[in-house]
């Protein structure tokens, strides 16, 4: 084989191998966030006007007082008796969320409004300018001002509505991701992937990736199953954003996923994450029997017999996924599958966190 043909063959082999290796690694930005980056919730109490007689009505004293105060601010003072039939206004709670990346003054975000008194519907109304603050009672600095025409998304819930781009920010809200020493940053591993192994692996990969910049010193240290503390190398201290961007581009092998079962009886959904194992147990449920961990593990009932794990030895751990697959083959209703999983968890035979929505 000529030298050129050899090089071409190597390139083909590299191209064939590279995708599988890349797909096997997960970038840190997908499983980690930077401490200090957090959403900021804004709230305020506002007034919707222009309703077609579906507002709070004059029987609600707070609404009457608020309307009277609003008229007074407009140099149009009125008496309670003069607004007795004002059914076209409603008091609402206004909420908005600033994303964890932060925003600057002048940017806009959506807000949501919900009636809090006795309004029947907010459809067709308009929110008067409403100041929004954080939940910190010690700091009532106005962060944004909400207002504008509202849109009812769900006809079945006409007392809840949204205003697209209805909040103008009047203050900068930035994420403070550096420690007071200005040279430390902490990665937070999301709860679904947090474990001592994942934290150790994240630290190992970062130390390996930045060996040259750190002069072979250890800069990343796991401080718990869900956090890794990183010392920013000297050459990046004037530009920590670039350093963090490079850190988050690093990848680790598929991180451990916490064994978890999520049930949603309302939608009939069962989600299994991680390696969820079950102990030997016999379950008698309605017209069938589930026997797990026997010499010949079977699920018996109407129709053919179905092995829970085909071609497996006696000592192999039993996986919940195999049980669910076997139940699905017998067309066991999802409600019954959920009942069985609940019983496994209640008896301590299900080795995973169980979450019901």
UniProtKB/TrEMBL annotation:
<dbReference type="GO" id="GO:0005198">
    <property type="term" value="F:structural molecule activity"/>
</dbReference>
<dbReference type="InterPro" id="IPR001782">
    <property type="entry name" value="Flag_FlgI"/>
</dbReference>
<dbReference type="GO" id="GO:0071973">
    <property type="term" value="P:bacterial-type flagellum-dependent cell motility"/>
</dbReference>
<feature type="signal peptide">
    <location>
        <begin position="1"/>
        <end position="24"/>
    </location>
</feature>
<dbReference type="GO" id="GO:0009428">
    <property type="term" value="C:bacterial-type flagellum basal body, distal rod, P ring"/>
</dbReference>
<comment type="function">
    <text>Assembles around the rod to form the L-ring and probably protects the motor/basal body from shearing forces during rotation.</text>
</comment>
<keyword id="KW-0282">Flagellum</keyword>
<protein>
    <submittedName>
        <fullName>Flagellar P-ring protein</fullName>
    </submittedName>
</protein>
<keyword id="KW-0966">Cell projection</keyword>
<dbReference type="GO" id="GO:0030288">
    <property type="term" value="C:outer membrane-bounded periplasmic space"/>
</dbReference>
<keyword id="KW-0732">Signal</keyword>
<keyword id="KW-0975">Bacterial flagellum</keyword>
<keyword id="KW-0969">Cilium</keyword>
<dbReference type="Pfam" id="PF02119">
    <property type="entry name" value="FlgI"/>
</dbReference>
């Amino acid at each position: 084989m000529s030298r050129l043909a050899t090089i071409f063959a190597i390139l083909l082999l590299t191209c064939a191998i590279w995708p599988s290796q890349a797909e096997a690694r997960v970038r840190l930005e997908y499983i980690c966030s930077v401490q200090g980056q957090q959403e900021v919730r804004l709230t305020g109490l506002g007034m919707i006007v222009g309703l077609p007689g579906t507002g709070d009505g004059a029987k609600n004293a707070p609404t009457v007082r608020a309307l009277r105060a609003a008229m007074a601010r407009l140099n149009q003072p009125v008496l309670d008796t003069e607004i007795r039939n004002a059914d076209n206004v409603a008091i609402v709670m206004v909420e908005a969320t600033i994303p964890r990346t932060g925003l600057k003054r002048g940017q806009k975000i959506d807000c949501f409004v919900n009636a809090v008194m006795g309004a029947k519907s907010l459809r067709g109304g308009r929110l008067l300018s409403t100041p929004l603050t954080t939940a910190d009672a010690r700091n009532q600095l106005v962060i944004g001002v909400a207002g504008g025409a509202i849109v009812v998304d769900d006809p079945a819930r006409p007392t809840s509505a949204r205003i697209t781009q209805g909040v103008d920010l009047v203050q900068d809200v930035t994420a403070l991701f550096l420690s007071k020493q200005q040279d430390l940053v902490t990665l937070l591993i999301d709860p679904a992937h947090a474990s001592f192994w994942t934290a150790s692996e994240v630290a190992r990969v970062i130390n390996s990736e930045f060996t040259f910049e750190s002069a072979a010193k250890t800069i990343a240290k796991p401080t718990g199953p869900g956090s890794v503390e990183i010392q920013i190398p000297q050459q990046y201290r004037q530009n920590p954003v670039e350093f963090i961007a490079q850190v988050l581009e690093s990848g680790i092998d598929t991180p451990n996923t916490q064994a978890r079962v999520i049930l949603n009886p309302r939608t009939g959904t069962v989600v299994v994450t991680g390696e969820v194992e079950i102990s030997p147990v016999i379950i008698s449920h309605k017209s069938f029997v589930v026997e797990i961990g026997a010499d010949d593990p079977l699920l018996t009932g109407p129709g053919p017999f179905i092995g829970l794990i085909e071609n497996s030895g006696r000592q192999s751990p039993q996986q919940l996924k195999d049980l669910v697959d076997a139940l699905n083959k017998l067309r066991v209703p999802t409600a019954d599958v959920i009942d069985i999983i609940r019983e496994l968890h209640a008896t301590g035979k299900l080795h995973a966190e169980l979450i019901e929505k």
